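User: What would this chain look like folded?
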Amino acid sequence: MVGAGRMGGAVGALLVKAGHPVFFSSRHPENLKDLTARLGPLAQAGPVQQAVAFGDVVVMVVPYAALEEIGKAHGPALAAKPLVMDVCNPIARRDGTDLVKWVGEQGGAGLASVKLLQGARIVRAFNGISYRRVGEIAHRAGGLVGVPIAGDDPKAITLAENLIRGMGFEPVLVGGLAMGKYLLPGTPLAEEHTPAEIRQIAAGLR
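Assistant: Here's the prediction, encoded as structure tokens.
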């Protein structure tokens, strides 16, 4: 996990519950002791460089403005991974209007992330579900909540789908990374939907 704030902590906790060893990282890893203590022996924490080296899969949950710096510092290591799950969203009030405009010019968050993390096998997921809800709605009885995903690399997509199912959701591939712009908060695919609803909404967006 690169980024262990509210959403990073919530997604990482679901991965731990699914039985995966998870290395949480942030700019201040000393602040993550309570999180790792709560999650038990499968969870540990340290600097970003260690997290990138540790994981077969790297989950990015940082402010979008940080992606460029991460790409410069860790680009080759990230490009060697079978999957980089991109949970980062460009938000004007946090990341700046210039960056949000640039992301739009690239064709949306999915295609922009590819330029910032060159060579990485990116799948966007969990972009439109609130960190407050993601833990509560996992493994929902009576039918799993759908998670729309977007990606271009078939092996990375399969890996992401398997991880998401293990976390208690039903992944729904809505298309390539060009569809990543439709996974943001405030778009029709955001919030909570059944897999069938996601397929219906996505069909109308293409």
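The chain has one domain: 6-205. If you want, I can go into more detail on any region.
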